[in-house]
Amino acid sequence: MKVRWPLVVRRTHKWLALLVGVQVVIWTLTGFYMVAVHIDIIHGDHLVRAPQAAPFDLDEVVPASRVIAAAPGTSEVRLQRLFGQPVWRAQTGEGARLFDARTGHPLPPLDETQIRAQARRIFTGDAPIVSARLLTEVPAEIKTYAPPLWQVEFEGWNRPTLYLSPTTGELMSRRHQLWRVFDFAWMLHIMDYEERTNVNNPLLRVATWTALAMIATGAWLLIWAFPRRRRKKKA
Question: For an engineered disulfide with 198, which of 1, 9, 168, 192 has Cβ 3.0 to 4.6 Å away?
Fold first, then answer.
């Protein structure tokens, strides 16, 4: 029996389109969003102020060796400012710790009032703070960071949210609604519905090869159709 290749290819193309067509539309829509919204906006660079360097009076600062002696296991010591005052930041095996740079005394973790003030100093907008919570379990949007973390959310349609370290007051991350939409779109785009990080997962590979097969069969049908049209016109 003679194989009717146009019919076979047409049916194959139809079933491939049914299988992967929805995902192709999702790839198109999510890809459009990811290129339409600038990546700097997604990162939230516009939400935070750039750090400003200010000189230190080293005559008023205790030596770093004193801080190292007070915090065994310190791997790094850095001089910085907190609320305008110089502090030593010591990176230890248990995390970062702050020391008063003028006395060498360890500083306690920041309380809610200080965190609110720090968030207000970092945030570029003038929207009021809606909430400030100390998290012992981090949400999925910052799952790469270890708790505890302060979550400070500001009012507004974009729900700007800053995550701050409770020991140093440093900005750990920032999130907002456009980022959350991007993260959801990225999940749909790479088809990793759990971790949202694996861009080479089996489901994505199967969908990609299926889409390529759909394109190939569609191209074959398009090329095959042209001679038939010319023959019909001659007839």
Answer: 192
